[in-house]
Amino acid sequence: MTAPLLEIRNATVYRGESIVFDNLNLSIEQGESVAILGPNGAGKSTLLKLLTREIYPYEKTGSHVKIFGNDRVNVQQLREKIGLVSYDFQSKYMPITTGFDVVLSGLLGTIGHLYHHDVSEQQRQLTLDTLARLGLLPLKDKMFQHLSSGQQRRLILARALIHHPQTVIFDEPTNSLDLQGCFQVLSDMRQLVREGTSVIIATHHLHEITPEIQRVVFIRDGQVIADGQKAELLSAERISDLYGTAVQMITQDGYYQALPA
Ligand SMILES: Nc1ncnc2c1ncn2[C@@H]1O[C@H](COP(=O)(O)OP(=O)(O)OP(=O)(O)O)[C@@H](O)[C@H]1O
């Protein structure tokens, strides 16, 4: 039997002095695409950071966070299996980094400046191939600061894809993007799932839950409060309850949108 991508049992997780999760339980199978929803501060990013091993749970008996069935994982190998796309990550790049170096940095496990690294011909070619895969070759010599936020986001996606990961994590994937950038990233996400890569997204924006994503998890007050199929959970009643404000729902072509009720 294949081990789950993520198995969290009775985990307690602190950020600074405060508890974000207490006795958190959640499993995500390999190949499964999931959307994590919850109000500001609910712990969506913290949950993703448990999966990327940027945050560890408090150690206690009867509790674990296993990734691919293991308590302990080699973080470099993990980065090759799980890609990450987020505004936070994007904002760490220096303005003068070129598009090529952004994507190459995924291969080297670095952020930005690469002049002290020897880069092999094979690494260069892989970087070019990955840029080409997303139609980003025209950006290879452009500095990050001269690109739109949407172009930057797609370079971060290309960086994530350079290892052909089996899962890509998107933390608020279209945050700060205009409509064109937003739709392009949504299209990229759909394409990934169609090609067999699973996506895990954390969001407030229901339109980011692309039609291919069927499972939705609600988190609030340090717990998973609902976990199930999108058609069941994305109702006006349940979204109103999750966010504590009255909404009405619109659905079209497999997309959902919340409006004030
Ligand atoms: N570096 C940090 N140090 C201390 N507390 C933190 C840190 N980062 C986040 N927190 C706290 O942890 C809790 C969960 O934050 P997290 O960013 O995971 O929530 P979120 O659901 O992703 O929120 P948002 O929707 O606002 O992005 C919040 O109370 C937040 O204030």
TrEMBL record:
Pfam families in the record, alphabetically?
ABC_tran
Where the record annotates domain ABC transporter, the positions are 6-246
Transmembrane feature ranges: none
Q: Tell me which Gene3D superfamilies the record gives.
A: P-loop containing nucleotide triphosphate hydrolases (3.40.50.300)
Which UniProt keywords are listed? ATP-binding, Nucleotide-binding, Transport
The protein's matches in PROSITE patterns, at most eight in alphabetical order, are given as: ABC_TRANSPORTER_1, ABC_TRANSPORTER_2
Q: Which SUPFAM superfamilies match?
A: P-loop containing nucleoside triphosphate hydrolases
InterPro entries associated with the record: AAA+_ATPase, ABC_transporter-like_ATP-bd, ABC_transporter-like_CS, ECF_ABC_transporter_ATP-bd, P-loop_NTPase
Top-rank taxon, per record: Bacteria
* Single GO term (MF): ATPase-coupled transmembrane transporter activity
Looking at the UniProt record for this protein, which Gene Ontology cellular component terms does it annotate, in alphabetical order?
ATP-binding cassette (ABC) transporter complex
Name under which the protein is recorded: ATP-binding cassette domain-containing protein
Organism whose genome encodes this protein: Pseudomaricurvus hydrocarbonicus
Print the organism lineage.
Bacteria, Pseudomonadati, Pseudomonadota, Gammaproteobacteria, Cellvibrionales
